[in-house]
């Protein structure tokens, strides 16, 4: 049975209306997906900016000052002991260096760690060195307060100054610097991608 002109016209109108609704629905879904993706990228960028700020703070407030102070200890250490003595024997000059340089430096390091240790993060090796250092400093302070000139390792062989303390700090410095570089490169790439996308949208309009 053939349809009359009016019936055919109704079908065309219905088809057009359904097509229009479908286009509107597709546009709505596309907008939702686009907004969700944009929000995801914004969150990712915010997370990267937060991570960069954390590592910059970690470097400037903890690791750089700590490295400088531990290197000061390294520089004067060899001047404090008799050459070739085993176990190491501190000279009278070494005791003077300890009093005028090492002990004040210990106070600075202890104060720094007490205030900024929350910036250590997941640094297992450095954390172990710090724990050994804090034990060393506590025993050294006790010995000096009692009038003893002995070294902590003479009292407890696990209480010596931690080996390669400054090196462990340097490792964490490199990690934070590399992380900042990595995150900064990602952010620059994202910004270039966003700019290109905006230009393409403008060209289409």
Low-confidence stretches: 194-205
Q: What is the rounded Rg?
A: 33 Å
Number of discrete helical segments:
5
Strand content range: under 5%
What composes the largest sheet?
none
Q: Give the integer mean of the pLDDT values.
A: 82
- Helix percentage: over 70%
**How many strands appear in the DSSP assignment?**
0
SS class: mainly alpha
Order of helices and strands: HHHHH
- Shape descriptor reads rod-shaped
Kindly report how far apart the N and C termini lie: 47 Å
In brief, what are we looking at here?
The chain is mainly alpha-helical.
Question: What's the helix and strand layout?
Answer:
Layout: H1 5-77, H2 92-116, H3 124-145, H4 152-155, H5 165-204
Helix pairs in contact: 1-2, 1-5, 3-5
List keywords for this structure.
disordered C terminus, mainly alpha, 205 residues, 80% helix, 5 helices, 0% strand
Task: Describe the protein.
This protein is an all-alpha fold and 205 residues long. It is built from five helices and no strands. α1 packs antiparallel against α2.
């Amino acid at each position: 049975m053939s349809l009359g002109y009016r019936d055919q016209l109704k079908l065309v109108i219905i088809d057009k209306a359904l097509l229009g609704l479908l286009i509107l629905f597709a546009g709505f879904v596309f907008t939702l997906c686009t907004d969700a993706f944009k929000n995801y990228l914004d969150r990712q960028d915010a997370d990267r900016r937060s991570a960069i700020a954390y590592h910059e703070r970690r470097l400037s407030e903890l690791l750089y000052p700590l490295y400088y102070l531990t290197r000061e200890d390294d520089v004067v250490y060899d001047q404090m002991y008799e050459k070739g003595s085993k176990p190491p024997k501190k000279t009278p000059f070494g005791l003077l260096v300890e009093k005028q340089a090492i002990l004040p430096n210990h106070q600075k390091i202890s104060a720094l760690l007490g205030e900024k240790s929350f910036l250590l993060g997941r640094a297992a090796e450095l954390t172990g060195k710090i724990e050994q250092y804090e034990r060393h400093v506590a025993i050294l302070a006790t010995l000096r307060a009692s009038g003893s000139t002995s070294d902590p390792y003479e009292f407890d062989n696990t209480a010596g100054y931690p080996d390669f303390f400054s090196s462990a700090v340097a490792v964490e410095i490199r990690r934070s610097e590399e992380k900042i570089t990595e995150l900064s490169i990602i952010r620059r790439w994202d910004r270039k991608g966003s700019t290109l996308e905006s230009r393409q949208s403008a060209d289409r309009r």
